[in-house]
Structure formats: C-alpha cells, structure tokens
Amino acid sequence: MSASPLHDIWEASASQPLEASIGKASQFYVGFALLLIGFFLTSLFGLNNTFKNVSLYGIPASLAFGFGAVYMICAVGVYV
User: Fold this and answer.
1) Where exactly are the structural domains of the chain?
2) What is the pLDDT of residues 42-76, one digit of tens each?
C-alpha cells in the first residue's frame, strides 16, 4: 500500500518553512501606513460620497483598513 499523494506533498514541504511576504520587523510600519491611507481615503469619500467615488475611494479604503488591521494585529502579537 503506497502513501497518498497528499501525504507525499506534506513530507516534501516539511523542509521548506513558510516565509512571510512582509517581515515581522516591518509589519507595524506597513499596518500603520495602510491604516493611515484608509483613514485618508475614508475622509475623502465622506466629503463627496457619490456612486462614482465608491470605486475611487470606498473600495480602496476598505481594503486598506482590512489589511492594515490584520498587519497591526499581527505586529503587536495577537495572531488571527
């Protein structure tokens, strides 16, 4: 009886640890910058909230807040 293909992949990846795209030392700065961008874009959207500005300000602000919050949570040691 042979091992399953998934088990073979698991064993092959054991020697290759996962490396984060943003290093632990710079997560705070990336998160802080994304949160500032999110606040800035949200304030621009609040000043002139038309349907056209949803794609221009609203969606990028949401993404910046979302990713910025996750990076800040990880930077201070609370893992999600």
Assistant:
1) 24-80
2) 999 999 888 888 989 999 999 999 999 999 998 98
Q: Which two tokens stand for residue 62?
A: 């949401």
Long-range contacts of 49-52 (CB under 8 A, 24+ apart): none
Nearest in space to 35 (alpha carbons), one of 70, 3, 68: 68
**Count of alpha carbons within 13 angstroms of residue 26, beta-carbon side:** 7
Rounded CA separation 73/52 (Å): 32
Q: What is the mean pLDDT of residues 9-26?
A: 84
Question: What pLDDT sits at residue 57?
Answer: 92
